[in-house]
Amino acid sequence: MNKHRFLSVELGRTLLVCGVLALVPLVFAPTGANAQDNMFKCTMTDGRVEYTNRPPADERNCSRLNIEPSVVLPAPTALPRPPAAAPARPAPSASSPTPAAFPRVDAPTQRARDTDRKRILEEELRAQEARYAELAKAYSNGQPERQGDERNYQRYTDRVQRMKDDLDRVQGDINSVKSELGKLQ
């Protein structure tokens, strides 16, 4: 490390320590109204800015700061406990009946919804199976034809791996759709 760089690092550390030490009185200053009323910001002739709570001797480079008083709120207290004699609500169970006022769908509407759902799932299954067949043909049992930009063997193996991942993903989608269709029947 050269001499100038060493001096600039040391100077930076020294200024940092001085700055922190200059702020210590502000942190530990009294929090009453007097301390807040007497805060000054002074600009020194060398350009440094200094904050103080004492009236400066030379007031032409200093200005009084208007600091709003800080608000201190007490910590929240614990919520009161309910009386011991209060009746406890029964825990809801999975087998509890549907409330009488709960809106119900009539049987023909539900059948129509189920039919629509089944039709949509069957269309999705056909689309996924067609996509799988297309990907399987291009994958060609792990030996797809090399493309012109794949002179590097790693590019070829990366593309083959992506094709395999796509096949696995589409097969998972097919299995999910078949599972949903099985729930309908």
Write the layout of secondary structure elements.
Elements: H1 3-27, H2 33-37, E1 40-43, E2 49-52, E3 62-64, H3 107-139, H4 153-184
Antiparallel strand pairs: 1-2, 1-3
Helix pairs in contact: 3-4
Describe the protein.
With 185 residues, the chain is mainly alpha-helical. It folds into two domains: 3-64, no CATH class; 107-184. Helices cover 51% and strands 6% of the residues. It has four helices and three strands. Strands 2-1-3 form a three-stranded antiparallel sheet. The protein is flat and about 90 Å long. Mean pLDDT is 76; it is low at 32-36.
In brief:
With 185 residues, this protein is mainly alpha-helical.
Features:
185 residues, three-stranded antiparallel β-sheet, mainly alpha
Helical amount among residues, as a percent range?
A: 40-55%
Kindly report the spatial arrangement of strands forming the biggest sheet.
2-1-3
Mean pLDDT: 76
When the domains are counted, the total is 2
Order of helices and strands: HHEEEHH
Q: Which runs of at least 5 residues are low in confidence (pLDDT < 50)?
A: 32-36
